[in-house]
Amino acid sequence: MISVISLNFIRTDLGIRSFFQFTKEELGEVYQGLKGMDGLFGIVILSTCNRTEVYLHHNSLYTTVDVLKYLQTYKGTNIPLTQFDTIHNTEDAVQYIVEVGNGLHSMVCGDKQIMGQLKEAYIISQQNNSMSGVLERVSQAIFRSHKRIINETAYHSGSKSISYLAVDVIKKQFQDNNVPILVIGAGEIAADLLKYFSSLKFTNVVVTNRTRWKAEILTKKYHYTVAEYGFLPQVLARFQVVVSCAAADQILNPAMLAGISNKLLIDLTTFRSIMPADDNNLNQLITLDNFTRLKNIANKDQLAAIDMVKHIINEETQVFLNWKEGRDRMNQQNQIIIAA
Q: What is each CA distance from 309 to 89, 117, 254, in whole angstroms?
């Protein structure tokens, strides 16, 4: 069977989600720790700024509770199980996973980042020999549906991402394309930010990253500049806006922000990478939880396409279920032959 475990922004606030995020290094350790568990055939863990989800291929010997106990022990957390959504029916689980991959459960309608994040999750699972043939087939259903939705509907026309929401907040608040902006990090979210900054003609954007060459590659495409990460405390005063998308705790901590005022601070991580002092009212801090309260109004073409999107997802889910039924029937026949 295929099951889903989900801790997501729709039901759970950032304070809880932040304890259940996984870096790539942690995922490698988790996959190795789960290997050989009786009844667990395959697992994919998706860990993004808005959700941590576990996709399981298993039998009755291994349950969603078992994997949650393992993951909570690994992370040293004790999040109540009621905070997690679970799906235990294979058909419902596969349909949900395909819907996630197409942005139907994202903070932003038709989220452009989630497909890349899901692909990376599958690759990491494969690299750790944790991908079963059944989960591989689920991934094919996601990719087929995504391609069909792009080709057959207008659902992804004008699709945005959480990065776009951040840039839109900056644009509306400052109404100045020359406002000094510092981006901390050089990963996928940072790349998305720079794309939107460039398209909206922001001219004064600087990137800093622990690994300098990654920032240099990213900024070269958009003709922005790089600041030395080691001098971060000294350069903060130059910027009116600081956006963090680096997966690390307290990159900007209370001591670093002491005496810093009149800044717009945007934390696009679940790692609390910006942590002002409790009594610091000198700066405005926007976190992912603030974005969940922003209205996400899809354009009319996207809204009109949703029914067709769901129809395509249903079709691709059924293709998978037909394949799995045939596979299970063949396995049963082989077992009968072996027993005879």
A: 22, 20, 46
Helices 188-199 & 162-174 angle (0-180, nearest 10): 40
Packing angle of the helix pair 90-101, 300-339 (nearest 10 deg): 140
Widest pairwise Cα distance in the chain: 80
Backbone region of residue 329 per phi and psi (left: phi > 0; alpha: psi in -120 to 50; beta: other values): alpha
Residue position matching structure tokens 């299970």: 328
Judge residue 322's burial from the number of C-beta atoms within 10 Å of its C-beta, 0-12 exposed, 13-18 middle, 19 or more buried. exposed
Q: Which two tokens stand for residue 7?
A: 């801790």
- State pLDDT tens for residues 3-25: 999 999 988 888 888 889 998 89
300-339 and 133-152 helices cross at what angle (nearest 10)?
A: 150
In single-letter form, the type of residue at position 129 comes to N
Q: Which amino acid is at 235?
A: V
**Residue 189 phi, psi dihedral angles, 5° rounding:** -65, -40
Q: What CATH class has 162-292? A: alpha beta
Residue entry with tokens 């500049």: 225
The CATH 3.30.460.30 portion of the chain extends over 2-157+300-339
pTM recorded for the entire structure? 0.80
d(CA 31, CA 41): 12
Kindly indicate whether the domain formed by 2-157+300-339 is annotated with CATH number 3.30.460.30.
yes
pLDDT digits (tens, 9 = 90+) for 90-126: 999 999 999 999 999 988 888 888 999 999 999 999 9
Q: What is the DSSP letter of 207?
A: E
Contacts of 330 (CB under 8 A, 6+ apart): none
Our CA angle for 295, 23, 198, nearest 5°, is: 50
Nearest to 106 by CA among 231, 252, 288, 265: 288
CB of 281 within 8 A of CB of 260? no
Residue at 310: amino acid letter: K
**CA 49, CA 53: separation in Å to the nearest integer?**
11
